[in-house]
Design brief:
Shape: globular
Number of strands: 6
Order of helices and strands: EHEEHEHHHEHHHE
Largest sheet: 4 strands, mixed
Strand order of the largest sheet: 3-4-6-5
Strand content: 15-25%
Oligomer: single chain
Structural class: alpha/beta
Helix content: 40-55%
């Protein structure tokens, strides 16, 4: 397993997670997991190095998704599969309702564009690079045990960064806006699967 990210902080976090998984006995004996920092537009691997390329909530952040997809195809062996997962417009609607109570705005323009970028922009590019692409909509729910956990999740989102953080809204305001709300966020994701 090779985990790749452009950011050093994210790579360090993945390395800690891999170490915790090994310590907890959650990996197979003899298996290897490496986290590395690299640019998705110039992957540091030879042609055909992988049988699977998995992008979970990442490719919709690519500056040049066509270049990224071409690099994925290059490093996949013939018959290898790219799996691309990202949000849909219906993802995390409860967060937008909460944000509207908190800030007066449900969703900012940056987050809005990102919520459907996988379907609207990257899917056509994936078809150009890989040919047929299978689409699946995945649904799940996050249920938070406490307001603290919900707010920890919310403050880690771009939605928070784009509006509430810029308004300097503190924990008291965030708790007030949360009062009486269910601590649940529905997740709707689009999965794209193709063959190299």
């Amino acid at each position: 397993v090779v985990a790749l990210d452009h950011g050093a902080t994210e790579v360090a976090g993945v390395r800690r997670m891999f170490g915790a998984m090994r310590a907890a006995g959650e990996t197979r004996p003899g298996s290897a997991a490496v986290a590395m920092q690299a640019d998705a537009h110039a992957l540091p691997f030879p042609d055909g190095a992988f049988d699977l390329a998995f992008s979970n909530f990442a490719i919709y952040n690519a500056r040049e998704p066509l270049s990224t997809l071409r690099e994925l195809r290059r490093v996949l062996e013939p018959g290898g599969e790219p799996v691309l997962i990202g949000p849909t417009r219906n993802n995390a609607l409860e967060l937008y309702e909460y944000n509207a109570r908190l800030t007066g705005t449900a969703i900012d323009e940056v987050t809005l564009v990102r919520t459907d970028r996988l379907r609207s922009e990257i899917l056509p590019l994936a078809r150009e690079v890989f040919g047929p692409v299978h689409e699946d909509v995945l649904n799940s729910r996050l249920t938070f045990p406490s307001a603290e956990e919900f707010l920890r999740y919310f403050t880690a989102t771009m939605l928070y960064e784009q509006i509430a953080e810029k308004m300097n809204l503190g924990e008291a305001a965030m708790r007030d806006a949360l009062a009486g709300s269910p601590l649940v966020v529905s997740k709707e994701m689009l999965a794209l699967v193709a063959t190299a």
